[in-house]
Design brief:
alpha/beta, Rossmann fold, five-stranded mixed sheet, 5 strands, 31% helix
Length: 204
């Protein structure tokens, strides 16, 4: 009887120890260039690859590859057509940053238009010296508009007797460069992310 009680107690202690170990939090710093994938869903590594591929395409194809006057672009964002909450503003911001760093393009600061107008109204009040005011009607118009759409498709294996099921996730980001004067699409390209995951039916 005593041996049985000791075995039960030892088993209980072992289970509690494993539970405590499982609840321990560990952290590490991840390098920005390291590809980290936990599941089949969209992640920050995908964003880096998407931005790199589309930036290269836009800069090495017509009309921008032959432009010598640093064309001006306004970004009207990327529409999220997936069923996930993905911040496509982050993709737009990274695209604009990469294109700016190329030194071949200029961008309208569309997000700050209201603040620019507010500052212009202030300067033309009675508090700013006339000789230091900005000149009105001097803002530069864009030549091109950059827009895009992010889409996704989910596929799962049909129900069968198995220990694991496979899930396929497909993402597609399409970008378009439109000439604002003619409304013609002068450049379009897309990049894809396809990822398959094998998931156990029972897990932690």
């Amino acid at each position: 009887m005593g041996i049985a009680i000791r075995l039960i107690t030892l088993t209980t202690v072992l289970i509690m120890s494993l539970g405590v170990a499982g609840c321990t939090v560990s952290t590490r710093t991840v390098d920005a260039d390291e590809e980290v994938v936990y599941d089949e869903g969209y992640n920050f590594s995908d964003k880096k690859n998407i931005v790199a591929a589309l930036t290269n395409s836009l800069l090495t194809k017509k009309p921008l590859v032959s432009a010598s006057d640093r064309p001006i672009i306004v970004v009207y964002g990327i529409a999220n057509r997936t069923n996930e909450h993905i911040s496509t503003d982050g993709i737009s911001d990274d695209l604009r940053q990469a294109l700016l760093e190329s030194g071949k393009l200029r961008f309208i600061n569309k997000e700050q238009r209201e603040n620019i107008a507010r500052e212009a109204d202030y300067q033309y009040g009675s508090r700013v010296a006339p000789e230091t005011r900005i000149q009105m009607a001097r803002q530069t118009g864009a030549k091109y508009m950059l827009t895009g759409t992010l889409r996704s498709i989910d596929k799962e294996q049909p129900r069968q007797v198995r220990l694991k099921k496979k899930v396929l996730k497909y993402y597609s980001l399409n970008l378009e460069l439109t000439d604002l004067e003619t409304s013609l699409i002068e450049w379009a390209d897309k990049t894809e992310v396809i990822r398959e995951a094998s998931k156990p039916f029972i897990g932690w």
